[in-house]
Amino acid sequence: MDALEDYVWPRATSELILLPVTGLECVGDRLLAGEGPDVLVYSLDFGGHLRMIKRVQNLLGHYLIHGFRVRPEPNGDLDLEAMVAVFGSKGLRVVKISWGQGHFWELWRSGLWNMSDWIWDARWLEGNIALALGHNSVVLYDPVVGCILQEVPCTDRCTLSSACLIGDAWKELTIVAGAVSNQLLVWYPATAFTLYLSARPTPFCCVLTPRMCTRL
């Protein structure tokens, strides 16, 4: 205990940012920061020192970055490569990056997808991405093809002020949403739905009937 009290912790460094930082995500010893539509990639050490590896400019077009979601890997290894969903306002883009040994390479980049509503949360589900949208609906998106696979509105089409997606598969996905009416809503997009397939050529899009929600 005395040794810990005598230890002098190293002084952390600061970084001058030109625009507000609106999104942060820590992946191992790396930090992703959203500065406007740009992504800044930093390396971190034990003393809290930052070293910028790369600035990816204008990744989200005219949208401000609000969040990052890193796709989980089966072996849990994100030290060399990672697939990252970047979202903000109504924009979404997925990038595959390599960042081993202090370097950064962008291996693949999707198009910039413009959703019909504000994106409050995103979650990887078995290679696809679930999105919680601003008027209490959930979209399941294919990031490779760039197509909406399923879109599920809740029966209560209220305006949300926040949302959180929980679960690792579509069948168990739960959305907890905060409404502007000071209510908390919980509902399950995949339960007891009727599925209608459109007549469009593949890749097809699916439209689902509304889902019941529970007020807390």
UniProtKB/TrEMBL annotation:
Which GO terms of the cellular component aspect does the record hold? cytoplasm
Oxidoreductase found in the keyword field: no
Q: Which InterPro entries match?
A: tRNA_Anticodon_Mtase-Reg
Alphabetically ordered keywords of this record: Cytoplasm, Repeat, tRNA processing, WD repeat
Q: Which residues cross the membrane?
A: none
Query: From its record, what is one biological process in GO terms?
Result: tRNA processing
Q: Where in the cell is it found?
A: Cytoplasm
The record's listing under PANTHER family reads: WD REPEAT PROTEIN, WD REPEAT-CONTAINING PROTEIN 6
Q: What is this protein called?
A: cDNA FLJ10218 fis, clone HEMBA1006936
Could you tell me which species this protein originates from?
Homo sapiens (Human)
Tell me the classification of the organism that encodes this protein.
Eukaryota, Metazoa, Chordata, Craniata, Vertebrata
